[in-house]
Write a structure and sequence with these properties.
single chain, 365 residues, 12 helices, 8 strands, 61% helix
């Protein structure tokens, strides 16, 4: 037990050290990107720094498998140079025993990342998008999805409008039971529009069987509205922009994702991308365990055998290859080429089996 705790503590220390290095590098690189996108004299340096801090968790979360495999390589290179692995083997234990503790720590780190870091990343990413859009577009457009339907907000030089629809199709080009409240530039309501169906074209909305109430006049309740068979309404929204708003599952907490997937299905959107992302997140601990096994398989040899640099290079290349295959399977799953469960769970499972085979061959083969 003492040996396991010792190896676990060293692995955790390596992981935190490399995580700190990547955090500093991510902050510096992203700071340069924010300075390029926004004028410091206009928005202020502290606002740019705040945007950088909001974006940093997302970058670190994406680099988590790389950080884990680098921590594993650093751990076992250090153990090999200090001959601590030789001592473990001389005590009558297989070197694989030294891998068990880092594997368990990686699994716990994966569970912590999914349950705690994922909601944090979702919150900071959403806040970053809000503040970034506010600085670029003055908060001109927004979108939300609730059990009551789809809510949109569009802006423009003539004012803005709040739009509600019961549902839409998969490509966000046709809407059912659309209701629009238009506002003047000074903030006062101008008109209320209701339509049975609506199409969102490049030049704006095309409303069918629409009724319009003028809110600038004082009318009694139940006053007749102006009926239009077809009504055109200018808009800066496009189907691509609406889909992009729903196109980032990482901006939604894993705890809220199942309900959001249900609401997407009820609203008529395709939820396949979000379903694949949910299962990918659930499989994250398994994939981090595979990264530890891969890193240890190439670096548990004693340094007197030489070719340490080659072993480290192979470990990182194999880790990158597995990461690429996992992302490629995610794309196939999102496009419907392979089943969701196969896209999410097959790469981590295959990675663990491959790493175990390599480890057994290198250690006891």
């Amino acid at each position: 037990m003492t040996t396991h705790l010792y190896f676990a503590r060293k692995f955790l220390w390596m992981f935190l050290s490399i995580l700190t290095v990547f955090f500093v590098l991510t902050m510096l690189l992203d700071m340069m990107e924010q300075l390029r996108r926004f004028d410091v004299d206009e928005v202020g340096f502290y606002r740019v720094l705040g945007l950088t801090l909001l974006r940093a968790p997302q970058g670190l979360y994406q680099l988590l498998p790389l950080i884990v495999i680098l921590a594993t390589v650093a751990l076992f290179i250090g153990l090999a140079r200090s001959s601590e692995l030789v001592v473990v083997r001389a005590a009558g234990r297989s070197g694989i025993v030294a891998v068990l503790s880092p594997v368990v720590v990686a699994m716990l780190l994966g569970l912590l990342a999914v349950t705690v870091l994922n909601p944090l990343v979702a919150t900071t990413s959403l806040e970053y998008e809000k503040q970034s859009d506010a600085l670029r577009n003055n908060g001109g457009e927004a979108l939300s999805l609730t059990e009551e339907g789809i809510w949109l907000r569009q802006g423009g030089p003539e004012g803005h409008a709040v739009i509600h629809a019961d549902r839409t199709n998969a490509d966000a080009s046709q809407f059912i039971n659309l209701s629009v409240i238009t506002y003047a530039d000074n903030g006062g309501p101008q008109s209320r529009i209701e339509a049975e169906t609506a199409r969102l074209l490049e030049e704006g909305w095309e409303l069918t069987n629409a009724r319009v109430w003028n809110l600038n006049r004082s009318v009694t309740e139940g006053a007749e509205a102006v009926h239009h068979e077809t009504l055109h309404l200018a808009s800066n929204l496009t189907p691509d922009r609406i889909r992009d708003r729903f196109g980032s599952p990482s901006a939604i907490s894993v705890w809220l994702l199942p309900q959001f997937i249900k609401e997407l299905d009820e609203a008529g959107f395709s939820s396949r991308r979000h379903t694949v992302w949910l299962h990918m997140e659930l499989a994250q601990p398994l994939f981090l365990m595979a990264m530890v096994l891969v890193g240890s398989a190439f670096t548990m040899r004693h340094t007197r055998f030489g070719n340490t640099g080659v072993a480290v290079l192979f470990a990182i290349l194999v880790g990158f290859s597995l990461y690429f295959i996992r992302n490629f399977a995610q794309i196939l799953g999102e496009n419907g080429q392979i089943p969701v469960l196969l896209a999410a769970w097959a790469p981590p499972s295959a990675s663990v089996l491959l790493a175990l085979g390599l480890l057994l061959h290198m250690e006891d083969g």
